[in-house]
Amino acid sequence: MGKVLKILYRLLAALLCIIILAIVFRGRICNMLINRGESLLADEKYESAEKYFRLVSTIYPNSERCNFNLLVLALKRGEGPSLKHMRDLLASDDEEMVLKVLDLASENRVTELRGDVASLKGSGNARISEAANRTLAILEGYSLDVRCKACGKSFTTWLARDAKMGFKCDYCGRHAAYPVDWFGFRKARCNDCKQTFLYDHGPGDPPPVKCPKCGSSNVGMAHLCHACGHRWGTNAAAFSCPRCHSPKVGAEPITEREAIWYRGRR
């Protein structure tokens, strides 16, 4: 009986030592587990990586690094991000962690965080304020169907609030993408007699020289603001609406009757 008690005492002492060591070196153990999980995440072994991150969250529930990696894991799997975790990390005192979350929000266009990102614009940290401004411009952006003038590919892209014409092409990488309705035949408008007419046009091509009605050379593109519906003519390419200053500007839509007439002339 005495031998059995000695063995039990030794086992309890060993277990107690292990617990004490785990508490003392908890940070190092968690970092080792997270490093292993990050390497598995980089190799796209998502299930194995999740096991390591879940283990760390059990040992150290408030690990910001672990929560950030769980966010990245969810996004790589195509799952929706945890808004609670993202908001908690945006409130972190760790500058680098806040910058990482802002990058993650802009890359994945998490528009639900617009209010939280806007609140960081007035922070005393210059780096965080600048990153928040960039992220907010993207989150307040819009999607647009575009076509690249260089390679001819068409695709849908997400544009920042202050994006300028000549967007970057997802295929060839050149800044030659324009709204799809800027190709083919378009409407021009005479700024003198207000006459509108159709003409061949591609992005970057000059507008017609003269108005076919009055002969005026004060002719430009007929623009439409998709935000407020305002139509106007100008000699220069318009990047924002003169009435509401929205960047959602495109060529004035062509009616079906005008399209039939124009196709018959080609």
Keywords:
single chain, alpha+beta, Serine Threonine Protein Phosphatase 5, Tetratricopeptide repeat, 3 domains, 4-stranded antiparallel sheet, 44% helix
Task: Describe what you observe in this structure.
The protein is α+β, with helices and mostly antiparallel strands and 266 residues long. The protein folds into three domains: 23-139, Serine Threonine Protein Phosphatase 5, Tetratricopeptide repeat, CATH 1.25.40; 142-180; 184-265, no CATH class. Helix content is 44%, strand content 17%. It has helices at 2-24, 26-42, 46-59, 64-76, 83-90, 95-107, 114-119, 126-139, 256-265; strands at residues 142-148, 154-159, 167-168, 175-179, 185-190, 196-200, 219-225, 231-234, 249-251. The strands form two sheets. Strands 5, 6, 7, 8 and 9 form a five-stranded antiparallel β-sheet that branches. Strands 2-1-4-3 form a four-stranded antiparallel β-sheet, with no helix packed on it. β7 (219-225) and β8 form a beta hairpin. α6 runs parallel beside α8. It is elongated and about 115 Å long. The N and C termini lie far apart (106 Å). 22% of the residues are buried. The mean pLDDT is 79.
The level of helicity is: 40-55%
What is the CA–CA distance across the termini? 106 Å
**What number of structural domains do the residues give?**
3
Major sheet: size, sense and barrel closure? 5 strands, antiparallel
The low-pLDDT segments are none
How does the overall form come out from the CA principal axes?
elongated
**CATH third-tier fold name of the largest domain:** Serine Threonine Protein Phosphatase 5, Tetratricopeptide repeat
